[in-house]
Amino acid sequence: MGLLNAFSRPRTAEQIAGAQGEDRALHYLQQQGMSLVERNFRCKGGEIDLIMQDRSSLVFVEVRKRAASRYGGAAASITGRKQARLILAAQIFLQRYRMPPACRFDVVAIDGDALSWLRNAIEQ
Asked: Rounded distance, CA 90 to CA 41, Å?
């Protein structure tokens, strides 16, 4: 048995399910011709699950997974506050570009086994 890193914590069932949802979304988007730029970009303003390249556009992707669609489902769980945090995180990410590319915000909503890809789902 090896020593545990003092900073590592066991992952919760929610975190594991979330990572599985992101894996599924990433695979789906790659099948649609997109390529991964960065996964789980974190900054003081928030986090972006997936940053993808779609031809000449950069796509910031929020992945939401719900076991069932009650309470409005996965897509409905993205509140105005969450959208503002996504936009702030994207602005911070874009600071690395001298001339930022065209970009958009997509959502991959997974309700049970059903996956929905919502393009331009968040207004900037």
From this structure: 9
